[in-house]
User: Which sequence fits this backbone?
């Protein structure tokens, strides 16, 4: 029987996440991943099966720890939840925090060459955007109970598109990302 791993799996995945987030899947080298995680190539492969297995673990943990944590308050009955969600992202991007400057890891993965060749990545990104759209739709319904369901659907689609656009722009044009997020509250107020 082989030795059990003696490392903190979460810490390794977090360290690898930073490499993938900065460099992208294809550009992240195994040597960079070894340096970031403190593990040897063989330890990484034994624990995760492959570089791709490590990337899959990174995406799953990112979805659970970052994305779902932010989406959780949406649709919980608080009429100001969507504005708070958007303001939190806008403030992080405006402050030029290192992670916010990198955009959304899942959207980055979805727009990379990997996604065009990999159905699993496309499915994960599609599921993520569907989850985000559903949470935003619930938040719009809480914020605008005066609207008919079809108007809520339309408004939430616009708001979700603005969020996706901002998260995509954050990497290349911080000011445009901030301005895009700043338009969400106005859109919520002026609709219908």
Assistant:
């Amino acid at each position: 029987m082989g030795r059990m791993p003696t490392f903190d799996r979460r810490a390794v995945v977090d360290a690898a996440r930073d490499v993938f987030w900065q460099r992208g899947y294809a550009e992240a080298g195994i040597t960079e991943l070894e340096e970031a995680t403190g593990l040897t190539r063989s330890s990484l492969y034994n624990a995760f099966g492959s570089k791709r297995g490590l990337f899959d673990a990174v995406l799953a943990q990112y979805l659970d720890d970052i994305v779902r944590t932010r989406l959780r308050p949406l649709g919980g009955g608080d009429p100001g939840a969507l504005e708070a969600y958007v303001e939190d992202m806008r403030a992080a991007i405006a402050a030029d925090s290192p992670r916010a400057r990198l955009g959304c890891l899942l959207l980055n993965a979805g727009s990379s060459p990997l996604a065009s060749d990999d159905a699993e990545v496309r499915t994960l990104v599609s599921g993520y955007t569907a989850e985000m759209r559903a949470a935003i739709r619930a938040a719009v319904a809480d914020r605008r109970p005066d609207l008919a369901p079809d108007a809520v659907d339309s408004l939430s689609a616009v708001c979700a598109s603005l969020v996706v656009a901002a998260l995509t722009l954050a990497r290349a044009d911080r000011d445009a990302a901030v301005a895009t997020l700043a338009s969400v509250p106005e859109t919520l107020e002026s609709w219908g």
In short: The chain has ten helices and no strands. The radius of gyration is 19 Å. Residues 71 and 127 are 14 Å apart (CA to CA).
